[in-house]
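Narrative of accomplishments. A recurring question from our advisory board has been how the design workflow behaves on a single, concrete structure rather than in aggregate. To address it, we present the structure tokens for one chain from the evaluation set, followed by the sequence designed for it. No filtering or post-editing was applied between the two.
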């Protein structure tokens, strides 16, 4: 067995590191996620969420040097600043739904022991983008509900604008609790939150229609829950024994008045974002 292979004696499986990324996604699960990954990568490439220039990746989240999604990255930057205030020193962190690794890079530079976890491997918007960074962090291809880490081994599990892709919130959080140390934190960052589930359902319908119009597919191959509500988060906390704190960073006045403008115009409730920080009761 080489340094680029790990063997699981219980399941008689060998896992390999390829191009700097540990591959822990089982073949049958690759099939399960294949359509989602294909659709997601198609949309992201069409939108131009990548760059051949390493400086683009290294500047995130504080600056989008492409200028294409500056408003999105302004939100990410505010959320990151809020995250920095709640992480304890010398934390071992899982960046779940790491995408291009911007958060893993920033946390690694701040001295944290970080592992980036994602389904995507591509070098533009997936784990393969690690080559753009000068920091050191582990890269693991895995799904939310089968994290390849020992029990009670990490200080924080951070869902990086990714939790809403989960197909089962209870299973996803239960797996996070398994790998989390007794005083560790679950952080759900930048997933859409609504007071009314009807607003969330309307958002999903609008997105499906837009995707069908632009790309020819609805991008709904996974039965993701797609959004959070305050009631749903309360139910999850009660069921799983998690105490939640919802942190709302200030994204600017234009963002702050969105709910008022939506009501005046008779539109649906706009999504909130921010961070949900969970501790075991």
């Amino acid at each position: 067995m080489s340094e680029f292979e790990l063997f699981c004696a219980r399941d008689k499986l060998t896992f390999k590191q390829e191009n700097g990324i540990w591959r822990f996604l089982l073949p049958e699960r690759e099939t399960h996620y294949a359509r989602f990954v294909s659709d997601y990568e198609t949309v992201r490439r069409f939108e131009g969420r990548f760059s051949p220039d390493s400086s683009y990746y290294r500047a995130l989240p504080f600056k989008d040097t492409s200028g294409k999604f500056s408003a999105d990255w302004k939100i990410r930057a505010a959320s990151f600043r809020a995250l920095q205030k709640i992480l304890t020193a010398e934390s071992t962190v899982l960046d779940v739904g790491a995408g291009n690794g911007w958060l893993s890079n920033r946390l690694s530079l701040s001295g944290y022991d970080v592992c980036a976890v994602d389904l995507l491997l591509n070098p533009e918007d997936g784990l393969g983008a690690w080559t753009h960074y000068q920091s050191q962090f582990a890269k693991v291809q895995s799904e939310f509900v089968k994290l390849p880490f020992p029990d009670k081994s990490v200080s924080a599990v951070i869902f990086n604008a990714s939790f809403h892709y989960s197909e089962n919130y209870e299973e996803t959080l239960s797996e996070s609790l398994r790998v989390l140390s007794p005083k560790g934190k679950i952080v759900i960052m930048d997933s859409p939150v609504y007071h009314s589930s009807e607003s969330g359902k309307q958002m999903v319908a609008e997105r499906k229609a837009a995707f069908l119009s632009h790309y020819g597919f609805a991008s709904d191959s996974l039965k993701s829950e797609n959004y959070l509500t305050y009631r749903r988060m309360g139910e999850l906390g009660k069921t799983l024994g998690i105490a939640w704190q919802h942190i709302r960073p200030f994204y600017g006045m234009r963002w702050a008045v969105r709910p008022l403008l939506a009501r005046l115009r008779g539109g649906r409730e706009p999504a909130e974002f921010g961070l949900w920080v969970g501790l075991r009761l």
